[in-house]
Each structure stands twice: as structure tokens, then as C-alpha cells.
Design brief:
Chain lengths: 538, 315
């Protein structure tokens, strides 16, 4: 509001904006000389701090004055960008995206109002996140008109506000129906938890050993538009998760299967579909998918989809899709084999990593956590047909390689190192498998060779009892060791307990650096695990 | 560079023999058990079924791993009761393996405890009763050479410790104790199948010689037999290798001596080694390693091509 003192209210004044000493803009050529004038500063106005107002009477040019001092014009901290032209027409019952730009720090929340003419017609939202956009369904009871504007105002600093530059229209027409998945939300492949939203879903591990339950609460934003009787026409669909049993409930826990025609079921969706019920408390249509029983196959986990559909008869009017990812509890022990196998199948990570070939092998390794309690990660019992891993495989790892020094030459070799998760598991299996291979390949040959009482002179004698025959010590697994010293590289000096077979152990540790098992990271659906956000960290 | 090992450090090293843990996690559950309880737990594992398992070497059976953990826990206890149980376990161990005899022992899981027994006794070697047991082990005809060697080194290290620099300024007295005590009357062939003894000489001489190759050489100046000269040559070459590893220069004089050792290895040791089956030619190994290091080009020129690796016999 520009104001001035006047004694000639019948006349008119010319109001100009000066930038420095130059006239910049004519604000009004003949405004009523009432002492005040409302000026809407155009958004295109160049920001500056040397502006002044000049007012001159159109009747008597000697009656004139400048602002006593300069003032600044700044860009508004908030600028409405849609709707912002007179070409915009909205339909009642349709959803539109109100957008705005911002400068500076107008705060984290905005209030949005709908204006008709110069009057506020309704509050669209009292407080919306200041993200630059807000979806709004035009209520059906909104009157038609061509003089609507949007006003957006910072909740924190009311001086930051803006209107649409021009009026836009709201028509009598009812708009297209609209549906969007509000929950689950986010991108399950994103790298931060915030970006993932709640799109990563994990089977429970707290029920009976053979059970696991996955609950996916689906909330849909629905605009009926011209669709009549919307309440019975919102359908929820979700992907198969292997052989896990899918049922649907309302948010309150009542059964809520889809009883209408199955037509239009999305490809990949489970045959069981849900009826989404409107929840006045949230404003969303809701349906809860409940999978019971962890699936048998590791391949059942991973990327899935939730579909929200408006279905009229046998026709899908419109739909939306949301990506999700399904995980199992890493340390839970409720996998399908836990009870039926009649033996210790171990925790879920073991079951799925093994049966799902996540670690590059599906055979020859078993789970035993009794030794895990003693701090042992993996072991091999001579003569058995398999190696063993313990629960520590899933909780430890991420160790750097280390150096060992040849006792006689001081030559340094680098061995060991361990990654985490399935990679660590593969390294442990490969490590123990090499112990097993040494036993399988040579134990009987050594016994036969040494049966003559001399342990020094035959190729397969093992003078130092490290399990590697004399003749193999110079070349075995690319490491040269002494045939008469079981611990050539002083493994014992680095980690206690290996004095009697350090030369075998260093080869197994070296094997960890290149285990020869192809780990498929894309198959690890443990939570936390390779593909979860955040991923597993020891 | 690794810290030079003195007697106490050597004992500590031997003591540290521990459970066969893939991770370095101590077994706290054993630490607070009474010595008698540890003995009982250890002995409970000596069932006929366990002791009847065939074992020819390498990664031991699980019950042996458990026994090793118990030995470590008991070794850490310094009470008279712990010592009494240590002796009891050792005596019973020796009784068992003597009954087995050399042939039975070669396929027994008790083999896997040999080195651990040395470490077990070394932890309490300051007591005469334990020292006697260690001597028994060192002289056993059933215990394998690689374990006996370690026991001998522990015992000789005690004798070396009895002298200090003031009593033995140039280290030669201690050097003689080392050579005589560790290699005794061994033949050259025996010594090259006992690298732990040669290593013991080299490591202890490195300490006495204050980590200088020339002093190591002088400490062992009384090497008067072929195996003792071989041990001295190893000690010197190994000392040079340690110096290089510490990124320090090998002196011209040391370089000349290395080449002298190389010539001795080629003319004297190597023909003898060629007649042996699977010896540990540790001098040759150090020389070949040194010859590959920068600055040792003259040594490299002396070294003959490597012998072909052995091939397995045809079935």
C-alpha cells in the first residue's frame, strides 16, 4: 500500500517507481488522489535496494514528492507457479497439483487458501510441508467461477506469501476419477531410509517357529470424479510372495476380500485381492494384505508391487502402482524348514542363503550354533561330508587382510580378510571346504605312506603333521612352506591356536581372498542385509 | 619388524597356543574354572571313542580343539594347584602316547596336542618339576621332532638367560650354549629335518647379537660342525633378511659374507641336501629370497636355477 498526504481528494495523481535517479515503472497514470494506492508488485520486478516512489498531482505538477529515502524490493520468498495463468480450468472432484517456488528460508510449512475474487473461499490446508507442491481434490461443492486465485503463505513467517498472478477458472464439470497409493510409499531401491519410505516390508519372526507374517497396510488416495458409488469400487492387489498365503483385512481387522469380478487383475498380482474401505479418520481407502508363512523359496522375496484400482463392473477405470520389496528377518528362525526338516535348520539367513544359492553353493555346508557360542565361526570335523557355519557368520565380518612373515626368510605374505553377509559366509565355507579337501585328498595317503614308520622320505609322508604331505608343501595353493615345520609363517604368533597346523590354516585363510564361490548379492533379502536400507553392518 | 624375542617373550609365544578359533575370541567360560575342574573337563573328553578317531595331521578333531582351550586356560593359572594339574595332565598324556608307541601315535588325535603340550609346560617352566617334564618331552622317542625341537629351544633359552651381557660381552658363551644345547650331536641330515631348532638358534642369536648381522655371526663363531655352521649361516642370512625388511641397508661386509655363505651352500650343503628326502633347506630359502631383493644382484648372479618342485608318485 502506497500512502501520501493530500488536500485535493477530488483530483488524481501519477505514481511512478524510480530506481536510483531513473524512472523505472509507471505504477498508476491517474490514480484517485485519496492518499493511498494498493500496488501488487509484479513477480518480474528486478530486486533492488535503491527504489523510491514519486507521486505527482495531474492537476498541479508542482504538487509532487519523492519517498524521503530509498527502499528495497526483494523477490518474494514464496511464488505461486500453478495455477498462475488465466488459461487454467479445474474440474470439481478432480485432483490437481498446486506448485510454488521459494527463496530464502520461508520455513518448513505453508498454508494454502483458495480465493474467489478478493475473498478467501476456503482453506485448502492449514499446514502442508513446504516441498513446492501439494495435491488437492477440488471439492464437489465448490462453486463454478472464473475469478479464483490461490494464496500460499509461510506458516512461520506470514510476510512471506504470494497469490496466483491471474485468476483461473473452476468449471461445473466433474473430473476424471483418480487413485494413488499413499502407503506403502517411497522407493525401495533408494539409498536412504527417508527415500525408501515404508516400501521395504519384512516378515515377522516373533510367532511360532513355522510361521512368519508379513503385513502390508495399503492406503489409497481416491477421487471419485464422475464415478458413482465409489465406496465399493476400490480394489487392492499385491504380488505373490511365493507360497505364502495371502488374505485381506480392513484396517480394523475384519476380513475384506474383493468379491467383485476378478477382471483386470494385474499381471503378477496374487489371485487374492482386497476390498479397500474408506476410513474417515484418515481420508484414505484402506486394505491390509496379510501373508502368512515364510515362503519356501528365497526367490519369493525381493521386488513386489501394490496396485490400487478403481474398478467399475469388470472394467478397471484407473489404477496406480507402488513398488515394494519383501524381506525376511535375518536372525529369525521361523523359516519353513525349521520344523519340518526334523533337524536344526538354523536361522532364516542360513536357510535362504543356502537353499537360494545366495553364497554360490547349496550343498556341503550345515548350521551349528553350539560352536558359535564358543566364538567359532566355521569348522570342519575330519571325515564328515560337510563343513559347518555358526551364527557368527551372520553377525561378524568386515575384517581386513593381514600379513604373516616367513619365519626363516622374513618374506611377508598377505592372507585372510573377510567381507560381510553372504560374502563372509561364502568365505567361511570356502575356508572350511579347503580343510575338508586337504583331509579328503590326503589323509588316507598320508596314513598309508607313514605306515612304514618313516615320516620323512615319502612324497605323501607328513613329517610336521600339518595335514599337507611333504611333497605338496612347496606348491600347495600357491604357498611355499617347510615340510618339517607345521607353522612356517608363524600363524601362531599372529593368532593363537594354529601352531600345529599353521601351514594348512594360512592356505585356508588365503582361500578367503578368492573363495571361488559366486555370491549373488541380488538374492540376499535378509533384513538387515545386502539389499535393505540401511544394509547390514557388523 | 617383529619385536625380537627374548626368553619371556618366547615362553609367552608358546603359551599363547590356543583354541582353534576362526575368530580371535577368548573362551571366557573357562577362565574362572578351578584347576581341578579344568582337569576333569579335559579328562572327560578322553573317551575311547574320541581317542580312537584316526588323525594323521592337520586340523584336529573337535574334542582336541576343546582340550587345547582347556590347556590354555590352565596354563594361564599360576597357582600351585594349577601346576599340579598341569603335571598330572602331562604325565597322563605321556603315559597314553607311550602305550600307543610310535606307530599308534602316528594315527592318533593325541598327535595334535604335541606342540600345545610344549606351550602348556613352558608356561610354568620356572618350576623344576615342570622343567623335568619338558625335558622328558624333549627326549621322548614318540613325540615328533618338530615338537621336541620346540621343547629343546625353551630349555636352552633358560640356560642362555642365566648369562647376561656383563658375563658374556661378545655373546660367544651364550652362542656356544645355543649351538651345543639345541643341535647337540645332530647330524646334518637330522638338523635339516628339524628347522625349529635352526630357527631357535637364529632367533636367540638375533637377540644376543643385538639385531646386527655381524654380531649374530660372532655370537655363533664357535660353530664347529656342519649342522652348526649351517645354523650359523641361517642365523646370519636371516638377520640380513630382517634388516632388509626393516628397510635398513645391508653393509658391504655383510654382503660379502652373504656371498660366502651362498658359495658354501652351493658347494657344501646343496650336494648333501640333494641326497635327502624333503629336507628343510632354510639357508637356501633365505638366500634365494635375499637374491631377489634390490641391491643383492651379485648374490643373485651366484644362485643356481631353482630345483624342480617334487611331483606326486604315480599311483
Amino acid at each position: 500500500m502506497i500512502t501520501w498526504n493530500t488536500s485535493d481528494s477530488d483530483g488524481s495523481v501519477r505514481i511512478s517507481l524510480y530506481a536510483g535517479k531513473k524512472r523505472h515503472t509507471m505504477i498508476a497514470n491517474a490514480a484517485q488522489n485519496t492518499g493511498s494506492y494498493s500496488w501488487h508488485i509484479p513477480k518480474t520486478m528486478r530486486p533492488g535496494n535503491d527504489y523510491r516512489i514519486h507521486i505527482v498531482s495531474t492537476r498541479n505538477r508542482l504538487q509532487r514528492d519523492f519517498s524521503d529515502d530509498t527502499f528495497a524490493i526483494e523477490h518474494p520468498a514464496i511464488r505461486v507457479t500453478y495455477p498462475n495463468t488465466s488459461y487454467v480450468t479445474w474440474n470439481r472432484g478432480s485432483i490437481y497439483n498446486i506448485t510454488w517456488d521459494q527463496d530464502g528460508e520461508p520455513g518448513t510449512a505453508v498454508r494454502i487458501d483458495l480465493y474467489k475474487g478478493n475473498s478467501r473461499k476456503r482453506c485448502i490446508t492449514n499446514s502442508a510441508p513446504n516441498t513446492g507442491s501439494y495435491s488437492w481434490v477440488v471439492p464437489i461443492d465448490t462453486g463454478a467461477g472464473n475469478d479464483y486465485k490461490i494464496r500460499i503463505c509461510s506458516c512461520h513467517q506470514p510476510r512471506y506469501y504470494d497469490y496466483s498472478d491471474h485468476f483461473f477458472s473452476i468449471s461445473e464439470e466433474l473430473g476424471d476419477p483418480y487413485i494413488a497409493v499413499a502407503d506403502p510409499n517411497g522407493d525401495p531401491t533408494a539409498s536412504t531410509a527417508a527415500q525408501c519410505g515404508n516400501s521395504e516390508c519384512v516378515f515377522s519372526d516373533t510367532l511360532l517357529p513355522t510361521e512368519g507374517v508379513l503385513t502390508v497396510t495399503c492406503r489409497f488416495q481416491v477421487v471419485a470424479g464422475r464415478v458413482q458409488g465409489i465406496m465399493g469400487k476400490v480394489r487392492a492387489c499385491i504380488s505373490d510372495v511365493g507360497d505364502s498365503t495371502l488374505t485381506w483385512q480392513t484396517g480394523a481387522g475384519a476380513p475384506s476380500p474383493w468379491t467383485g469380478a476378478p477382471d483386470g487383475r494385474p499381471s503378477g498380482a496374487n489371485t487374492s485381492m482386497g476390498q479397500a474401505i474408506y476410513n474417515p479418520a484418515t481420508g484414505y481407502f484402506e486394505a491390509v494384505a496379510i501373508y502368512t508363512g515364510l515362503p519356501t523359496s528365497n526367490d519369493a522375496f525381493g521386488p513386489k508391487q501394490v496396485w490400487a484400482q478403481i474398478v467399475d463392473g469388470s472394467q478397471v477405470i484407473t489404477q496406480d502402482v507402488q513398488a515394494i520389496e519383501v524381506f525376511y528377518s535375518r536372525l529369525g528362525a521361523n523359516n519353513p524348514a525349521a520344523a519340518s526338516a526334523g533337524r536344526n535348520w538354523g536361522p532364516n539367513w542360513f536357510y535362504y542363503w543356502k537353499t537360494g544359492n545366495v553364497c554360490g553353493t547349496t550343498t556341503g555346508w550345515e548350521y551349528d550354533d553350539l560352536m558359535g557360542a564358543l566364538g567359532i565361526i566355521g569348522y570342519y570335523v575330519p571325515g564328515e561330508d560337510h563343513v559347518n557355519v555358526t551364527g557368527l557368520v551372520a553377525t561378524l565380518g568386515d575384517w581386513p587382510p593381514f600379513n604373516l612373515t616367513h619365519k626363516y626368510t622374513s618374506q611377508v605374505i598377505t592372507i585372510g580378510g573377510a567381507d560381510i553377509g553372504p560374502h563372509f559366509c561364502a568365505q567361511v565355507v570356502a575356508h572350511e571346504n579347503l580343510h575338508k579337501k586337504f583331509y579328503d585328498d590326503w589323509a588316507l595317503l598320508i596314513a598309508a605312506a607313514e605306515s612304514d614308520g618313516n615320516v620323512y622320505n615319502d612324497y605323501y609322508d607328513d613329517a610336521d603333521d600339518d595335514g599337507i604331505p611333504n611333497g605338496e608343501e612347496p606348491t600347495c595353493e600357491g604357498i611355499d612352506s617347510e615340510p618339517n615345520d607345521p607353522d612356517t609363517y608363524d600363524m601362531e604368533g599372529y593368532i593363537a591356536g594354529y601352531a600345529s597346523y599353521g601351514d594348512q590354516e594360512i592356505r585356508c585363510r588365503k582361500k578367503q581372498m578368492n573363495p571361488g564361490l559366486t555370491v549373488d548379492d541380488s538374492k540376499d533379502w535378509a533384513s538387515p542385509g545386502t539389499n535393505s536400507v540401511p544394509p547390514f553392518v557388523p | 619388524m617383529r619385536t625380537p624375542i627374548g626368553l619371556s617373550a618366547l615362553c609367552a609365544l608358546l603359551l599363547s597356543a590356543s583354541a582353534l578359533l576362526y575368530a580371535d575370541k577368548p573362551d571366557d567360560s573357562l577362565a574362572n574354572k578351578k584347576a581341578a575342574d579344568l582337569y576333569n573337563t579335559y579328562e572327560t573328553l578322553n573317551t575311547p571313542a574320541n581317542l580312537g578317531v584316526m588323525f594323521v595331521g592337520g586340523k584336529p578333531p573337535r574334542f582336541i580343539e576343546q582340550q587345547i582351550r582347556i590347556l590354555v586356560a590352565l596354563g594361564n593359572q599360576k597357582t600351585p594347584d594349577a601346576r599340579r594339574n598341569t603335571i598330572k595332565i602331562f604325565d597322563e598324556y605321556m603315559e597314553r602316547i607311550d602305550k600307543l608307541g610310535a606307530n599308534g601315535f602316528r594315527t592318533s588325535p593325541l598327535q595334535a596336542l604335541q606342540i600345545q603340550m610344549v606351550a602348556f609346560l613352558a608356561a610354568k617352566v620356572d618350576h623344576p618339576d615342570v622343567r623335568t617334564r619338558l625335558k622328558t618331552l624333549a627326549e621322548s622317542t614318540v613325540i615328533k621332532e618338530y615338537a621336541r625341537s620346540r621343547a629343546v629351544v625353551v630349555l636352552v633359552a633358560l640356560d642362555v638367560q642365566a648369562l647376561n651381557d656383563a658375563q658374556d660381552p661378545d655373546g660367544s658363551k651364550r652362542g656356544k650354549i645355543l649351538l651345543d644345547g639345541i643341535l647337540a650331536n645332530m647330524t646334518f641330515e637330522q638338523s635339516t629335518h628339524a628347522p625349529a631348532r635352526l630357527y631357535g638358534v637364529a632367533r636367540l642369536a638375533w637377540d644376543i647379537g643385538k639385531h646386527k648381522p655381524i654380531l649374530v655371526w660372532e655370537v655363533l663363531s664357535q660353530a664347529d660342525t656342519l649342522p652348526k655352521r649351517y645354523a650359523r649361516d641361517l642365523a646370519f642370512a636371516s638377520a640380513c633378511s630382517k634388516v632388509i625388511k626393516a628397510k635398513e641397508p645391508v653393509t658391504v661386509a655383510d654382503g660379502i659374507r652373504l656371498r660366502e655363505i651362498a658359495e658354501r651352500w652351493i658347494k657344501e650343503y646343496r650336494p648333501l641336501l640333494a641326497k635327502q628326502s624333503y629336507p628343510s633347506d632354510v639357508v637356501g630359502r633365505v638366500l634365494r629370497y635375499l637374491a631377489k631383493q634390490k641391491g643383492n644382484e651379485k648374490l643373485a648372479q651366484l644362485m643356481p636355477p631353482e630345483d624342480p618342485k617334487p611331483k606326486p608318485p604315480k599311483p
